[in-house]
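Weekly sync, protein design subgroup
Attendees: M.S., D.O., the rotation student, P.L. (late)

Item 1: inverse folding check
M.S. brought a backbone from last month's batch and wanted to see whether the design step gives back something sensible before we order anything. D.O. pointed out we never logged the input encoding, so this time it goes straight into the notes. Structure tokens as presented (263 positions):
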């Protein structure tokens, strides 16, 4: 019996999700997959083409009209009746922990020492031997342990060593809720959406850097349409400076992507 794929690769980032890719030939048994695959690929290409076209048009319309985070907080309360989450709430604590780790990795990775860079098991065969399976198991276990060690290290870093002025504002919707995170010390702001997934509990989607990896049709359809438009308005109000536009900073990139996905 021959192999049905040549390799599997694991690709991951320091502060993002891990992806697993399978490369190789499709078996003769998977005729349905082979028939549908070109259609899905064509649709993906078409959506990506119009997405890039819309992005170029939006870039030409953006002007430098920035607002401060305190002005943004008043805008959220005035326009959407947003409520600031208590520092004792579970959602606040979880989101603050993620924001803190992300900001430390971005601005002060030296505080984490050798835990700032955590390597992934990058390649293994489709039909591994017993030795390879054991090596992979150990590598994944070590990766998980180092992730947990980094999270504990982040929690141990004091406010004096890494100051944060962190707030979470929540906008309640029939579809779920939109959360807006702000961190004034480093000028960070991000928007996410929590909703109820059918049969999968609560799901959380980000309207930020991850957007460039998601096709616009997903965000404009179904339950994500209204939260997506709200996210676009929030990023637009927060705005960008001339420097953000010239250097294409993360703040500028997030604004462009949010407006593209808002439709």
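Designed sequence read out in the meeting:
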């Amino acid at each position: 019996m021959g192999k049905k794929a040549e390799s599997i690769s694991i690709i991951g980032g320091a502060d993002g999700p891990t992806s697993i890719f399978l490369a190789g030939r499709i078996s003769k048994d998977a005729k349905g997959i082979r028939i549908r695959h070109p259609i899905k690929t064509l649709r993906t290409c078409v959506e990506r083409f119009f997405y890039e076209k819309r992005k170029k048009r939006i870039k030409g319309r953006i002007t430098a009209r920035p607002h401060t985070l305190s002005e943004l907080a008043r805008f959220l309360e005035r326009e959407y009746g947003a409520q600031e989450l208590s520092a004792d709430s579970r959602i606040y604590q979880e989101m603050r922990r993620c924001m803190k780790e992300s900001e430390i990795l971005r601005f002060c990775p030296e505080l984490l020492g050798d835990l700032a860079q955590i390597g992934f098991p990058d390649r293994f065969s489709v039909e591994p031997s017993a030795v390879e399976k054991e090596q992979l198991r150990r590598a994944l276990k070590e990766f998980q342990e180092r992730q947990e060690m980094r999270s504990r290290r982040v929690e141990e870093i004091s406010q004096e060593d890494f100051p944060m002025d962190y707030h979470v504002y929540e906008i309640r919707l029939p579809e779920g809720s939109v959360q807006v995170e702000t961190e004034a010390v480093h000028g960070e702001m991000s928007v996410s959406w929590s909703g109820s997934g059918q049969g999968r509990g609560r799901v959380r989607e980000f309207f930020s850097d991850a957007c460039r990896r998601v096709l616009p049709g997903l965000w404009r359809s179904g339950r994500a349409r209204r939260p997506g438009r709200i996210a676009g308005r929030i990023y637009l109000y927060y705005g960008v400076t001339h420097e953000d536009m010239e250097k294409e900073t993360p703040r500028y990139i997030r604004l462009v992507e949010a407006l593209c996905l808002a439709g």
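Discussion: The helical segments are 31-61, 69-80, 90-107, 130-156, 216-220, 225-238, 242-247, 250-262. Residues 51-109+163-262 form one domain.
Action: P.L. to compare against the previous round before Friday.
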